[in-house]
């Protein structure tokens, strides 16, 4: 079977979303990309997670043309493929409607970096897109959803590195999260929901919370990420 291993990884990531309570019914999807072959493996649309098997996954090229699969690909395919084309360092994308992250998206608010849990995974606030315009919604809606994410990350003067902050909230919709592979993307989605829940409660306790300092953000982020990362490494 074409891309057997990637199909299994994408299936595991989809099931992880269910196991961690990030999706209801079929409200979400995960995909992964094989960069060497330029192929994407994505969950089929509307199929219950408990019925999913590797052979149900749909394989497309990076433009979303179906290469292999009997079922329709996720209705969010064009967002996934646009993210793969534009953020060339990522290997997988996850979309959920997890409650707290989606609440921030619906409010049109970024998730502030309030503490070290956030800083361990996201090097700054998790951004939110501008609301999609009616023409975009009535046109190539799913593509435009991805375009809104890319536009937010490349906004002049407010650029965001997609490898340092592997998530974006789509205003009025929900989060898209990515990672180096399917396991990593699902893991980031789980943590995103946890930090969104904590941020929501932090805001309730203290409306004008200043958030984590730059020093604490640097200390926590860079001990897990980048060339000087030490987290989880053995000492000699
Ligand atoms: O965003 C939404 C619904 O608002 C979709 O992600 C969700 O229904 C899942 O669709 P698919 O089953 O992947 O086609």
From TrEMBL:
Keyword terms of this UniProt record? Metal-binding, Zinc
Q: According to the UniProt entry, what is the EC number of this protein? A: 5.1.3.4
**Cofactor(s) essential for the protein:** Zn(2+)
Limits of the Class II aldolase/adducin N-terminal domain = 8-200
Q: Which Pfam family name is an example for this entry?
A: Aldolase_II
Answer whether the UniProt record assigns the keyword Zinc to this protein.
yes
**Top-level division of the source organism's lineage:** Bacteria
Under catalytic activity, the entry for this protein gives:
L-ribulose 5-phosphate = D-xylulose 5-phosphate
Describe the family membership recorded for this protein in Swiss-Prot or TrEMBL. Belongs to the aldolase class II family. AraD/FucA subfamily.
Q: Which NCBIfam families match?
A: PRK08193.1
- PANTHER family, alphabetized: FUCULOSE PHOSPHATE ALDOLASE (PTHR22789), L-RIBULOSE-5-PHOSPHATE 4-EPIMERASE SGBE (PTHR22789:SF8)
Name this protein carries in UniProt: L-ribulose-5-phosphate 4-epimerase
């Amino acid at each position: 079977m074409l891309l057997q291993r990637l199909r299994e990884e994408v299936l595991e990531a989809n099931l992880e979303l269910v196991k961690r309570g990030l999706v209801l019914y079929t409200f979400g999807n995960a995909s992964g990309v094989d960069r060497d072959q330029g192929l994407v493996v994505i969950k089929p649309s509307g199929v219950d997670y408990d019925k999913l098997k590797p052979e149900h996954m749909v394989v497309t090229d990076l433009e979303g043309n179906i290469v292999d699969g009997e079922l329709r690909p996720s209705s969010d395919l064009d967002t996934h493929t646009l993210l793969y084309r534009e953020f060339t360092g990522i290997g997988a994308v996850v979309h959920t409607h997890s409650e707290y992250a989606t609440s921030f998206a619906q409010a049109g608010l970024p998730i502030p970096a309030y503490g070290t849990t956030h800083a361990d995974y996201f090097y700054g606030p998790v951004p939110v897109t501008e609301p999609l315009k009616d023409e975009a919604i009535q046109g190539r809606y799913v593509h435009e959803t991805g375009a809104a994410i890319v536009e937010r990350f490349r906004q002049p003067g407010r650029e965001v590195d997609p490898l340092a902050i592997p998530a974006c909230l789509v205003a009025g919709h929900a989060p898209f999260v990515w990672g180096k592979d399917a396991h990593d993307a699902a893991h980031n989605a789980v943590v995103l929901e946890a930090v969104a829940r904590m941020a929501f409660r932090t805001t309730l306790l203290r409306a004008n919370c200043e958030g984590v300092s730059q020093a604490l953000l640097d200390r926590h982020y860079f001990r897990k990420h980048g060339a000087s990362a030490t987290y989880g490494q053995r000492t000699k």
